[in-house]
Structures
1.
Amino acid sequence: MTASTSTRTGVTEPDRRLPALGGFAPGALRIELRRVLRNRRTLAFTLIMPGVFFLIFGLPQGGQSLDNGRPVTAYVMISLAVYAAMVATTSVGGAVATERALGWSRQLRLTPLRPAAYVATKLITAMSLGLLAVVVEFLVGAVAGVRVPAYVWLLSGLAAWIGSLVFAAFGLFIGYLAPAENVMQIIGPVLAVLAMFGGLFVPVEVLPDVLQQVATFTPVYGMGVLARAPLTGDGVSMAAVVNLVVWALVFGVGAARLFRRDTARV
Amino acid sequence: MTSTHPAVELDGLTKSFGAVTAVDGLSLRVQPGEVVAFLGPNGAGKTTTIDMLLGLSRPDTGTVRVLGGTPDDAVARGRVAAVLQTGGLLKDLTVGETVEMTAHFYRHTRPAAEVLERAGITDIAARVVGRCSGGQQQRLRFALALLPDPDLMVLDEPTTGMDVEGRRDFWQALRRDARRGRTVIFATHYLDEADAYADRIVLVRQGRIVADGTTAEIKNLAAGRTVRATLPGADQAALAALPGVDAVEVRGDSVLVRTGDSDAIARHLLTRTAARDVEITSRNLEDAFLALTTAQTGA
Ligand SMILES: Nc1ncnc2c1ncn2[C@@H]1O[C@H](COP(=O)(O)OP(=O)(O)OP(=O)(O)O)[C@@H](O)[C@H]1O
Ligand SMILES: [Mg+2]
């Protein structure tokens, strides 16, 4: 065999060090965000629909008050902000399913990007869209006349946003479970049912007794209670906290396991 | 390059999928700077071998060294890059964004504009990937592979699904980019591609290497002719010692001589021996390929 041993004349030797942070880069994150914001479907379901829901179901209750005198519209607005955030984070996490179906994850394995850095990018993208969803819902509420103390805006907003981390994990979990291109079409209705049980569309108290019992064990219940607590002034029940923590663990650990299975070499 | 490691060292690779042995004890060494064609029919094990070479799958037995290290390390350092047969692109990104995004995963890359230019897709940089033709997407994959300025470039049937013009454009892009020092390994079904672009051809069949040599050597396997004659009691060794003889085979009363100089052999057989019924047949590269990749070889 005639092997050429010539050097690369005129070409500076490339920098062969490993990338910092396993290839995690703000630049790639920026493109991911741009991608998400370009997706009309995602925007319709996370930014527009919850806002419209508020105008339809919240506004007509203007003038009514909760037991502590705060407006019912705020209760509806916060619930829908939780809903918007959970749909947002689920859809970004679930997009992993699409990327696996398309074979993009395989393409990524030919780059220095470490799988953990990829997941970190997805989580940050999910949480960014989740934050945007909460802010937009609150803006719609504020413009429509919802008035509550500043600490309620802040704490409820934070709780809705941070709680949606559970659903970012849920999205990743589903994404690694099923490599399907249209995964959100399947999860969308599931999210609506979970939101129902979580008291995001109607208060859990109006559900029949049995369903109320069931509801406390469903994944949205905890974050719903937490997000509304600053408004209602009701204490946060132990059940709600346990609910949130347990579901965060279930989805987080589930996603991590599937992720590990996916990235294992066969 | 200061390194003296071979670009690729595959040693006794085996990989099975259930009852199917896709790769069966394959060993191969590729030196830096070689352009090697991996030629074989469907199911020969080319993709399975390339997957192991890139660290995308683990061999059942055997070892893989890429540029003196593990495949994972070579990938992470941008020393090896690949254009795969499968492996998708995000349909909702533009061509330019795909390159930009991928560049962020490396510590250091060539400028995006340069790789787009070299892959010949500068004019479609703003186009959404979902609206690019198969050939354009393939050239985008090629652009992505150029980003880290790899020492080793692996391509798995890069022109599959392209029309004649697309194939020509793709190879032109690859050739334009060819520079000394970069090792290239590509899998293909097409003899003409192997012939036109590789310095070395490795023929694979059923997970094994059935021939390995320079393009000229492989062509030689085929370019010669076969002289057949009826010659009871032929002296195989004496015939094999004649100038220009590549191989001699005796089958009963028949003798088959593979040679680059069929005239001289025919003359010899007719004038110096009792041979009769002399026939001369020629083989082309296609025949050699078929013979080597489909027939059961004794070895
Ligand atoms: N994941 C898999 N599961 C089961 N069998 C597989 C798998 N991958 C490959 N095979 C089998 O292994 C053999 C080699 O396949 P491989 O894809 O490596 O061939 P190839 O030379 O790349 O073929 P082609 O030219 O069609 O791309 C085939 O018989 C194939 O069916
Ligand atoms: Mg193949």
Note: The CA atoms of residues 220 and 237 of chain A lie 14 Å apart.
2.
Amino acid sequence: MPNGAQYSQTRGANTEKKTGPGINPMHIHPRPKRSDWAWYVLLLVIFVLFYEWVIDNPRWKWDIVAHYFFAPRVLAGLKSTLILTVLASALGLCIGVVIAACRMASNPVLRGLAYVYIWIIRAIPTLAMLLFLFFLSALIPRIYLPLPFGDANVFDIDTNQIISRFSAAVVGLALYVGGHSAEIFRSGLASVEKGQREACKAMGMSDLRMMWHVIVPQAIRIIIPPLANELITMFKNTSLVSVIGYVELLTTVQLIYSNNFETIPLLTVACLWYLILTSVAMCGQSLLERRFRRGV
Amino acid sequence: MNNFPGAPQASAQPLLQLTAVNKQFGDFTALHAVDFSVEKGDVVAIIGPSGSGKSTLLRCINMLELIDAGAIHFKGEELGSETRGGRRIRAANKTLDRQRRYFGMVFQGFHLFPHYSVLDNVLAGPLIVGRAARKDVIERGIYLLNRVGLADKINHYPSQLSGGQKQRVAIARALAMEPEIMLFDEPTSALDPELVNEVLEVMRELATAGTTMIVVTHEMEFARKVSNRVVLMDGGRIVDQGSPSELFEGSGSARCKRFIDSASRP
Ligand SMILES: Nc1ncnc2c1ncn2[C@@H]1O[C@H](COP(=O)(O)OP(=O)(O)OP(=O)(O)O)[C@@H](O)[C@H]1O
Ligand SMILES: [Mg+2]
């Protein structure tokens, strides 16, 4: 009974202002709804069935789930997933900021390039992007930038030296995050009312300070929910990198169950970890949202 | 404060001078060769029908809109453009930002920063633009809020204020940058009738204190009683101007009388 607790807390202090069940006989209670009990019954049914079908189901083999949950191989796969997620997010968000800035630039070359980037990233499946990157050395053996005169190069690198399973995975996912987050940033910044910019300009604020102090803090509220969504999607998309042979959490459990045929318990292990980490991300999201809700 | 100390007759120049200012929006000409000048201490009321270019004129002065031809001089300094190799080009963004600080602007829609408290809104200019230390400007912020009668709302957020209170915060915010000219674009038009007077009262006090002001307004009472010059605009041109008594009490043009009659009707 959270309501009762709340009222009793305030009982000592200025009681004449507060009203509540135990205090004021004139208190108006919420109207009882006849349909409410049906939903509580439904909840009970859900609990019972969940227990019957999942928890108390010997075929789910919870002892094996428990055995593998902290198994070193699984934890190593989890670590790979986390490293991949963190690096690809960080790099991807940087790309996204740059692309969004180019999209809003006054220079048509920058705008055009950013538009083409977003167009391609949206169109190409992440899986194909990862494969292209991994096999880049077959397509472009050397990456170089020639000087305009003479035959020297500013740089000239053997593609094989920079493309590994790991770097291809990070870059592939980052390119994806970059394209999608750029659009999220752009629409978030555009959602801040035009008058805010005019108020800044009218007091002589530079564009950079206007962005940092006024526009971004207001846009962040709009940006956080879709961006969190995008990053959580990417977190699960890390499993795609198995196509180029990079071993992360989901690939690890697949490798394990292809040997011992305990498919469901091992998939359960992976999903429980995804569930836990997604919950952590969602907590972070609501903390951020609360932080930027000030004044609105 | 004169930015052209070497300018020959700097003292003879008006504070602000617009010469043959043209502003286009695509094919549409919003300002036709407008000439206009303001002396220190002037309180200019700009009146005229909707769409006549009043806001555009104000926004050209502080370069929220950039003019297409003509010139704007502030104390002899050319605003928003410069001459390079015999050609006039737009001034650099940095120059525009510096020159905008000569003016403070109050908008019809307030445009307070919703994520800042009332005090932080007022301090936004000194802190973010002026890069002052908070402890050095906080007293001035409180003084300004006192001046607009809102010292008790310092820690409120804009969403917790009435329209009239918001507009008074916006006035204090503009004053905090110590502008030489205050621009008001219909500061009371978005307010409920009973809140108009508290804002006009603040503006009247500013005028009495000698603040140079250009006010676009539909408040004929304000134009008549507070301003020392009234400018009537129509179709992107200044069609009449003079002292309030000239325009309101007889000697003004027929067009002017017609507008004032229609605007003063309840
Ligand atoms: N950004 C813009 N793009 C195109 N046309 C514009 C723009 N801003 C203003 N105009 C046009 O310029 C003309 C003058 O507009 P302005 O806002 O200056 O009028 P106003 O005198 O302030 O009218 P009101 O009393 O309704 O505010 C109008 O015809 C308007 O449609
Ligand atoms: Mg207007």
Note: Residues B 54-55, 185-186 surround magnesium ion (ligand 2) (CB under 6 Å).
